[in-house]
Amino acid sequence: MLKFQLDKIDDLDDSLKPLYEEKDGKFVLKVDGVPQQKDDGLAERLKKLEDNNRELLSEKKRAQDAAEKAALDAAKKGGDVEALEKSWNDKLTQKETELKKQIEERDAMISGLTVGSAAASLAAEIFGEHADLMLHHVTQRLTYEISDGKPKVRVLEDGKPSAKSLDDLKEEFKTSQKFAPFVVGSKATGPGGHGKPGSVKAGKKFTDYSGAELVDIRRNNPSEYQRLVEEHRRTT
């Protein structure tokens, strides 16, 4: 998956270098639909990827038709129909596998350029130094679709595309009590319970703690906080 920001682009393939622009000494991915980032050129390139997908599907259909025709011709000539059919079926299966892989790779690239970049940008703006930890919460609220030949990032509500904008989603995260301890500039405080500040209870996982408790652990027991985070990442 392409990264949102790079220190250098010398190692990138030449076809990917135009997707980045230099800002403040860094190379930042240009994506249509990400806040404060517009690049019609990128939208055009993504449209070409969609066109390629359609061409791959057409090629698959042509391969199927060719296999069916070969089998029929062989049957008419009275040859070894079974052997010929197996040969063509093997070739068709191999071709379908190759085409499916290419389509999946293109879909993954489009998703990375749209959803991945939008999620990274929002997470950094909303959660600051907690962006990496909270990124998956943002990502799971986004999807993309092709509209009028251009990729558009859509906000999900209950798993379905909604009319919400990226700004609406940003405000939702900022005003959520669940995420308040991680939001930049939040006035959420640590837990008011008993016990030593930053204490970790045996057997409790990252998701067992409240947001306020996690903030307290991170502040007073950073090594245990990191352990909880790494354990959470391994199991999700």
Number of helices in the DSSP assignment: 6
The string of secondary-structure elements, in order, is EEEHHHEEEHHH
Give the class from helix and strand content and strand pairing: mainly alpha
- The largest beta-sheet arranges its strands as 1-3-2
Total DSSP E strands: 6
- Write down the Rg: 25 Å
Distance between the amino and carboxyl termini: 19 Å
Q: Unreliable segments (pLDDT under 50, ≥5 consecutive)?
A: 35-39, 189-197
Helix content class: 40-55%
Description:
- This protein has 236 residues and is mostly helical.
- It folds into two domains: 5-172, no CATH class; 189-234, no CATH class.
- The chain has six helices and six strands, in the order βββαααβββααα.
- The chain has helices spanning 40-77, 81-127, 131-139, 166-175, 211-220, 222-234; strands at residues 5-6, 20-23, 26-29, 142-147, 150-157, 160-161.
- The strands form two sheets. Strands 1-3-2 form a three-stranded antiparallel beta sheet, with no helix packed on it. A three-stranded antiparallel beta sheet has the order 4-5-6.
- A hairpin with a 2-residue loop joins β5 and β6 (160-161).
- The longest helix is centred in the middle third of the chain and has 47 residues, at 81-127.
Give a quick set of tags describing it.
236 residues; 2 domains; 11% strand; 6 helices; three-stranded antiparallel sheet; mainly alpha
